[in-house]
Structures are given as structure tokens and as C-alpha cells.
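[User] I wish I could look at a protein chain and see how it folds. I have put the entry right below:
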Amino acid sequence: MISLLESQEEIKSARAMLRSEGLDFAQHGRLRLWDILYRVRYRVPMPKPDPIKSWDVMNALQIVEREIPDRRAGILDMGCYNSEILYALHTRGYRNLHGCDLNPMCRRMAFWHAVRYRQADITSTLYPDAKFAAVTCLSVIEHGVPIDALLKELKRLLQPDGIFIFTTDYDATGGGEAAVTEPRPFGLEWQIHTKQTLLDLFSRFERAGFTLLDQDARLPTHHQRPITWNGKEYTFALAALRAP
């Protein structure tokens, strides 16, 4: 499965859908208790999820619910800091949720009483082999993640036929850049994928034994670049793959 964000309207529609289902954690007061606890400990407000990620979260949630209906299944969010997907999955009744991130503050994210957060490099975690039925990774791999090391870790962590869902920055209109060195968000490299670099990425997954959920899927085209961040315009690409 491959999808592209086409417009700002899709972001607004996804946020409206999350809100209608009680899953809008960017909404004022939705995380009030956790914000109070965070303020008591750190004297600053707890970061709220960014609504610009609405499309990513809504699509990833729908795929997980469709492919992994068992609420006891292990699910990991890689690069989980300030990501809304684990909040949504917890609210939907999933009870074996994990999140890891380089940022140590991930351990104080909302629902820490139920979601097991851990500071970790996503390419070298300490989770047991074949622990997870699904792994999500939203807007992470474009920030200097070594793909071969990530693939090795995913193959170790995912159960046979497990699901990996990722989103990444993308621009195939010719107006973007294959590699961006400045600015360096979070002090990391930043790559906006082109059509060729994204196809190359899929080829690397294929060589590692991963297959798209829809094996006949083709990379769609896009005309708009609805995301503007750090002086760049681009869109988001989402892919869902099945582990060997």
C-alpha cells in the first residue's frame, strides 16, 4: 500500500474524523491530566501533537485496526516522541503498546501508566525478537536513519507477516530536493524524498523480504505540496509493508 497526501483539505478531514471519534489529542484539554503531571515535574507545558500529522495518524490507525484486530497484539511506535498514534491506539483498546525514541522525554508522554516508553535508537533496541505484530514509524526515517540497520532491526522485531507502516517527506513535482542539509531539524540530517529515492527505498525493503500490502500498488502522482516546514514545501508519503 502506498498513499500520498494531496491537499490541506485531506489534513483537515483527517483531523475532523479523529475529533469525531474522540481521538483528537491536539485538542485543548484532551490531555489535561497528563499536562498537569508534566507541568508539576518539569515546570513547562507538555508538548501537544501537531495537527499537521492528522493524515498520517488517521491512515496508520486505520491500517493497524484492519490488519491487527487483536487488541492484545504487541505494537511499537518508532520515533514516538510527541506522536499521536499511540494515544489513539490506546483509546481504541490496544493494551500491548510500546514506544521508543532518542529523546529521553518520551518516557513522560501521556498514558505512561499503560504505554511502555523507552529511550532507544530505533536501529538498535533491546526488545525481544518477534515481539511485535506491527511497527509504526511516522515522519522519522527522513532524519538520517540508516536504512540497512533499520531493516535488520525490523526483521528481528516483527513477527512473521507483521506490518510495518511508515510515512516520510516526499516531493515528486521537481520543486523539491533529494537531500536537505540546512536547516538540520533536531540536529539531524533531513531528506525530502524524490520519486527515484523513494523507489530505491522500496527496492531495499523488497530485497530484505518485505512486500507492500497491496503488491500491485504503484507510486501515485501528486500536484500539490501542502506541507510547508523549515522553508521547504513538500508532501507526505505513506507505505504499509508486510514482513517476511
About this structure: The chain has six helices and nine strands. The mean pLDDT is 92. The CA atoms of residues 112 and 202 lie 34 Å apart. The radius of gyration is 17 Å.
